[in-house]
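Issue: ligand-bound run for CU-O-CU linkage - logging full I/O for the record.

Environment: standard queue, default settings, no custom constraints.

Inputs:
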Amino acid sequence: MNINRRTFLKTAAGAAIGATLPHFLSDQVFGKTRQPVREFHFSASKATVNLGEGPDFIAWTYNGQVPGPEIRVKEGEIIRVVLKNDLPEGTTIHWHGIPLQNIMDGVPAITQPAVKPGETFTYEFEARPAGSFLYHSHAGYQLDQGLYGSLIIEPLNEKTSYDREYTLVLEDWVMKDGGGTARTQRRPMQGMMHGRMPRRRSFGPSEGPLWEPFYDGYAVNGRVNSAIAPVVVRDGEKIKLRLINASSATTYFLRLAGHALTITHSDGTPIRPVDTDVVRIGMGERYDVTFVADNPGSWLLGAYDSGFGEGGLQIPVIYKGVNRKEPDGPTFHRGLRMATYFDFEALQPTETPIDRADRYYNQSLSGGMHSSYWTINGQVYPDSDPLIVRQGEWVRLRYGNHSMMSHPMHLHGHFFKVVNPSLPPERWILKDTVILDHMQRIEVEFFADNPGRWFHHCHNLYHMEAGMANVVVYEGDSQQI
Ligand code: C2O
Ligand code: CU
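Outputs:
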């Protein structure tokens, strides 16, 4: 055999690595041992918190703080989180947006039994892909009580340049014991504040799902109102903001006074940069945005307040060395540009779905008007039909929202492509959460490459708990939790 030098070197290197292992194992094992493990210890427990303004109250926390500790790792590292449950009820952690192994997905009764009080559970998965994510409890209303935090996976090769970055976790709070909402307390939903009729419940106070609470604190990284920590910039810098909406029931419309924002990533994935006046971010969504600090002064990144106190918050953006004066806030007037999903285009072309999906599911979103339940195809989870898929299929979900409210629909374990008829399929953006407005239709398509049982639901926590959910099940899966 005639071996040239290059081939010989390759062969020699390969032999050295794989000497004692069969070829098909060596890659995997060799790869694993090289990946650094980043270990975190989380205790889920009640703790007294203060959001910088307002009363002390008891929230449900990871390590006594809200939000929980930020997990920040490099792409390809192994994240290991040892969760100790010091709460009075079962809990789990879900790694929102990360297509990990099904048993690590953290959904009680679907991927694991809830971790019981006093018990410990270890989550372990590879940090992939790079991007801005979040983690949160997936048990009951615990997300709204404070059990969430940010998860940042830094890319091995940073493709976007910036000088400074900030992570901004947006959270809606009821600043009293129990955080979000207490089991014993039910209130009419916020819809009535928009002039709609309050709905009547047809059952007793101890049954049925909870209404959305009236929030009285919109926090950024656990601080409300004037306690919100400023974004400090220097003249000439390019700033990256990781916007993460960990709220249970609030969508924000954000605008930065004095500067244009450029969206660079949607749900962690890079997109062709889009300039926008307003960024809309729904529950469970993430946007990375950049701006150039070229207008020295004291400004506010403000969220539109409908006038009912909903979702209004203001983050100071302060230039270093500029004398503090009253910051200028953004105005929300007619004619502002708000980029939508259909203005986004994938930065790197991704695998192309064939022009016909292998399987289609209609997902009609409804409920809320005359009932306490929110439905998909008229069904209330857990009495909803599973979405059966087969490994290797492209699966198209055709959403239609027939209700009065918006629904951020979220699929676990997969990114989906948002179908955009004006772009070729390889340019469709990848997301894991997509908002359906009143009467809107959106189709998404995912590749069934991650076997298991995956929750699929509205990320308004109160809609999810009121039935707007089903489960994607891979054919042949007979797992019992
Ligand atoms: Cu943030 Cu079921 O998800
Ligand atoms: Cu919803």
